[in-house]
Amino acid sequence: MRTWMTIWLLLACALQTMAQADTAARKKPAAVKHPPAARTAPAAAHKVKPDSAHTAALHAADSAKARLADSLLAATPKVPAYDTIMQSLLEKNAFLTRKGKPVVLDVNPVRETDDQDWLVYLVAGVLLLLGIIRSSYLKYFNDMFRAFFNPTLSQRQLKDQLSQSPFPNFLLNFFFVISLGLYLYLLMYRLDYPTDAIAWMLIPGLMLLVGIIYLVKFVVLRFCGWLFGNEELIDAYVFILYLINKVLGILLAPFLVVLAFCSPEIASICLYISIFFIVLLVVYRYVRSYSLVRQYLSFSKLHFFLYLCAFEVVPVLIITKVLLLWLTGNP
What we know:
The chain has helices spanning 2-32, 34-75, 81-92, 117-136, 138-149, 151-163, 166-190, 199-228, 231-261, 264-293, 301-328.
């Protein structure tokens, strides 16, 4: 019994072995188809190799170019940054470039009339004269301005002190004549009045005219005071008149410089300012004169106004008209 069971097991194992061999024999032709895949793999590998070589060649070329650029940079001398900036300025800046016509800004333009250098010396001489008078008679200057700004004090104390200094009084009256005469010339010069007169004749003529006007006024006032027996009143009035004239001559000194040398725009503005100050001082003189005369005489305001028109305003207008006719020739 055991012998038969062993035989059956052997037979089963043999049959199973044969079945596996048969299955392996059937699968063998399908396995033979793999070599073409093996052949395509080397072909693909063969196709990749040229790309890698090309990339390597490009990389080598770039490296060669970089080495060449580095060698050229090493061979080229280095230019300092300062030289580079200055070269750029020379090429682009309009004031430094050498290409074309250079740009020039003339901050001191040449005067149109180059024959008035004498005016510099004349104005400088007027200012020098004022400086010498002030330095020599400083106390007189201080008393004069105190009398100008304080009418009550001037009538009581300073009038006698100023009257006791005749020489500085004469010098300041002389300076007023010079200052006003030169101011009138510069006034006509800035207003463009046509004149054929030579300046060195016109300026002394204007100064002489101003001096004659105030000299005649002084003589007439003294004569009226002697004639009507009011010498004390005339003395006080003459003191106020010439006190304000002295202050006016000093006030016109800076305007002479501006009218002589500044541009037309600035000179025009200062011209109107100077005229305003002149009118203001004339009005101040009449106000002080009216208050002074009221202390000695009783009269109406109408009489005082008629006096101003007859002896102050009308002569000035007539002289101005005659002067303009002489200078311009127009009726």
